[in-house]
Amino acid sequence: MDEATRPAQSDIRKRRTGRWGAMIGVALAVAFLGGAALARKPVSKSPPELLHETGLYADVERHQIDPQHLEFSPQYPLWSDGAVKRRWISLPARAAIDGSNPDVWVFPVGTRFWKEFSFGGRRIETRYMERQGDGTWRYATYAWNEDQTEARLVSEKGRPKAFDFGGGRSHFIPSIDDCKSCHRGHPAEVLGFGTLQLSPARDPNAIHGEPMPAPGVDLGYLVENKLLKRLPRALLKKPPVIDGATPAERAVLGYLHGNCSHCHNDAGSMRNLGFSLQHVQRPARNRAERAIATAVGQPVRGHVPGQAPDAKLRIEPGQPERSVLLRRMSSRNPLVQMPPVGTVVPDDEAIRLVAQWIRDLESPVPSAEASGKSAQTK
Amino acid sequence: MKISRIVLLAAAVAISVPAAAVAQSKKSAKNAQVKRGEYLVNSVGCHDCHTPMKMGANGPEPDMTRMLSGHPQDMQVPPAPASSGPWVIHAAPLTAWSGPWGLSFAANLTPDPETGVLRDFTEQQFIQAIRTGKHQGQGRPILPPMPWPAFKNMTDADLKAIFAYLRQIPPIKNKVPDPVLAGAQ
């Protein structure tokens, strides 16, 4: 090849650069399109028929949990008619929860949760949540067989009479609509696995508090193991604690957070009620607990069937029998009861402690929310 | 007219004409949504239960002076006859219903600020209520014979249209009685 026909070095470099550029461009395009397709792709099409197919167990017949999953316990558990409950979370490999908004954690696609319900020493049902490729959560419930060797998918309509409590009452395995009506009341959709519930400063007086199972999943554990990222550092230095005037008030407000704030919060679809029982991590106005500010001395909105004419306030200090919140949590009339789903047996211990707390609240209270912490215990 | 004034006038026209066009477009879309909602409410049978009947020349017909205001507050209903054989549901006179669940009354769907059942509903809550069969989408159960299991199949756009229509119909003050659950009658 002579000088005339030999391509100049700069042309060769350009061609090579062009080829590499094209290859890199194609590779990036494929990676981008593939990634986008992967991000949109649902994890799977429908819930598996059998519980063990969700991947919870290493050996379902021996009830051996896959050691990759983490058992956890929220410090303020939800009342479920006295059920003994166990809970597990599973995160995809190398994925982490985004805790940058400490009140609304964002879970990676592929996150799975299980919650097992036992009554009378027998497993009755296991509930399952899984985050899909499109960002939505899938809900499923599984009913255990008589031999306790497997649990099978329950119809979307749920299943009545799954366990007999006596007195005409029985456990109802919730419908998918029931699941959604509660879980979708909060933007995170995951209930019981968040900043306050996993605080290392656990409340020793929590109503129905449970011992923390191994390996001790709390905020510190999650951050150290890179399972929770971007959580504000201040929450690790000073773990969140409910600002109660007394230990009893702290426990009661924690109970309301764990049992009521799924719907009654400032971020979900019921926020227009101006009634929040959620303990929030972000600086609240005047540092008041939202439950105090929006419930104590505040009038009820709307009308509840059978509402007594003397019950006008959500919480009337010193007057538990006139406080609508206590009346509704004491009722199991389906048109009145709170929570509206998931329970047919009143929580007598909580009713007693909440009543005592209301009795101890000083009266009168400033009605304006802006007054900050509007009630003090005696 | 000075040139600067002409420029200012032209600028004002240039800004206001598109803004007016956008506002007109939004108003037109809202009107279309309300019309769609009216069409759906008239087609899927909302009036059958939620508008009280009156006796006309050809028998019972909806009393549109009380459109969608639910069971009349001044209409007392005696206890329903006991169910026997295949007869399990009784209606009186289509705004009050008795069945195995108890006694329920058609709600006041008008935007009356004191007695309208939707007065505290957001659009999202209305959609969730129809999807889940629960008051405001998360509360107490909506009782039979409200056919939410059928209506839950509507699109979000259709449910939004129904909600938009119901928000602008004439408000009627009518406090519908509380339902009575079976066993408490």
Automatic annotation (TrEMBL), chain B:
This is C-type cytochrome. GO terms for molecular function: electron transfer activity; heme binding; metal ion binding. Residues 32-170 form the Cytochrome c domain. InterPro entries: Cyt_c-like_dom (IPR009056), Cyt_c-like_dom_sf (IPR036909), Cytochrome_c-type_DH (IPR051459). Gene3D superfamilies: Cytochrome c-like domain. It comes from Microvirga makkahensis. Keywords: Heme, Iron, Metal-binding, Signal. Residues 1-23 form the signal peptide.
